[in-house]
Amino acid sequence: MEKGLLIVFSGVSGVGKGTILSKLMEMEDLNLAYSVSMTTRAPREGEVEGVNYFFVTKKRFLEAIKNGELLEHARFVDNDYGTPKEYVDKMREEGKNVILEIEIKGARQVMEKCPDALSIYIVPPSLEELERRLLERKSEDEQTIMKRISKAREELKDIDFYEHIVCNDDLDIAVAEVREIILNEMNR
Fold this sequence. Notes:
Layout: E1 6-11, H1 17-25, E2 32-34, E3 37-39, E4 53-55, H2 58-66, E5 70-76, E6 79-84, H3 85-93, E7 97-101, H4 104-113, E8 118-123, H5 127-137, H6 142-156, E9 164-167, H7 171-186
Parallel strand pairs: 1-7, 1-8, 2-7, 3-4, 8-9
Antiparallel strand pairs: 3-6, 5-6
């Protein structure tokens, strides 16, 4: 059995990564497995433990770092996020294409440790559109949204190490572009 791909999938907060990812996960020909991240942030409405994230305490998160259990980890807008290494390795060995939805600092760590990783960054059509989407989502207060916009400005200056940049102006087109990137890599 051929080892599966490791796909680093990133983008600024509110750009539609989750929506794109959910559509990709429905495509059986991509053979995707979603890597569930560990986080210290509180669950949003509708999120399920072990499906969306592993929600842990700060103490447990620090233990995971100390024990080398994470492929990458980073702090983002006052919360910690990390990728459990064991899950990723197991899925790839089973031939699954594992997709990591992670932020830019974590992506750098993964790409340093796994130079064969395929990297895709999703960008918004504009920062104004991004702000509108974040406000519409109504999951955070205005101060947190402004932190996310500020972080997006910084991040967008430093995404040139990603192999592929996809603009999510039209959801169906963005999904089709990401699908094509993954299929091309699978057929190499």
